[in-house]
Amino acid sequence: PAAPAALRSLPPPVAVGVLHATRPLHTTQQHLAPLPPLPEKGGEVRHGLIPEEFFQFLYPKTGVTGPYMLGTGLLLYFLSKEIYVVNHETVAAACILSVIIYGVKKYGASVAAFADKLNEEKVANALAMKNAAIKDLETAIEEEKKEQWRLEGRSYLFDAKRNNIAMLLETNYRERLMMVYNEVKKRLDYQVAMQALRRQKEQDHMIHWVEKNVVQSITPQQQKESIAKCILDLKALSKSAQAAV
Amino acid sequence: GPLSERRLMDVRLGELPMWLATRDFSPQGLLGAVQKAWSSYHDKYINVKRGGPAGISMLLAGYCLLSYGWSYQHIKCHRWRKYH
Question: So where does this one cross the membrane (chain B) (predicted)?
């Protein structure tokens, strides 16, 4: 809060916008294409020492032998005036030069072939990396396209989800409906059972009361009379039964 | 093109003093000239795919000539003849 604001109000550091360079940077157009490849061969040099441009420069005036005549003349002049002095160093230079020239002539081609092979390996490595990178990117593009295609199926996904939710809602609704039905049935059953119980109780009580009164109303006199009657009936019946057998 | 923008090889002999006058002789200018000369030589003879012995042999020959020139006063004492 307070500290960052105070820091922000400070002047910018000196290094901003000042880049120390001995030459101006970014003066030419920005190259968006790869660099041009290296030239195949270097500038033409004759005898390993004198560039071809010198011979071409002298050709119109002196022909083919001009530069050689110039070289011979200069050499003789230096020797005769002893501007070039012949001493022990001349012998040393002659030996060294002969060894160098012999070495270059004999082993030059093989060394060049070796260097070329190294170069080719490097280039092949770089090319392989580039191809691998390109292939990876292409597979990434394929994957991306497939993902985009998969995206089109999201309507089906949402339809399925909607169906699921609808089914859940329906199930829930039916469960609750069932619960309501069960509860109501239980309460109604209770009422019915109560009524049945009451009716039964009333019936039992009434039967019991009627029996009790009937039993009470049977006096002992009536009991004796009824028993005597039953015995007489039985005797009569037994007689008729005996007669039937 | 105008004289100040031409390279040394494109300047004619008569125009040489004028061309030298237009050159920049400050340290940065000299350093820049040396850098340009070296980079043009390097790109022409050394920084190629299939170079040969010419690239360094010319440098070595130039070095030999320079060192002979620097020690000429000493070598003059070893001449074979006094009068040429």
Answer: 54-72
Q: Is the CB of residue B76 less than 8 Å away from at least one CB of chain A?
A: yes
Q: Which domain holds residue A147?
A: 88-203
Over residues A212-238, the pLDDT tens digits come to 998 888 777 788 888 999 999 999 999
- Is B51 within 8 Å of A42 when comparing Cβ atoms? yes
DSSP secondary structure letters along A131-168: HHHHHHHHHHHHHHHHHHHHHTTHHHHHHHHHHHHHHH
State the pLDDT confidence band at A1, using cuts at 50, 70 and 90.
low
- Number of CB pairs, chain A paired with chain B, less than 8 A apart: 64
Chain A nearest-CA distance from B51, in A, is 6
Residue after which a domain boundary falls, among A186, A203, A220: A203
CB distance B50–A82 less than 8 Å? no
* Structural domain that includes position B10: 1-51
Asked which of A58, A85, A112 is the last residue of a domain, the reply is A85
Kindly report the backbone phi and psi dihedral angles of residue B52, in degrees, each rounded to the nearest multiple of 5, phi listed first. Answer: -135, -160
Closest residue to A104, CB basis, from B53, B68, B76: B53
Q: Is the pTM of this model over 0.80?
A: no
Separation between Cα atoms, residue A201 and residue A198, nearest integer Å: 5
The whole-number pLDDT of residue A21 equals 65
* Spatial separation of the C-alpha atoms in residues A194 and A169, rounded to whole Å: 37
Residues of B in contact with A51 (CB under 8 A): 58
Q: Is A95 within the bounds of a domain?
A: yes
Model confidence at A121, pLDDT cuts 50, 70, 90, reads very high
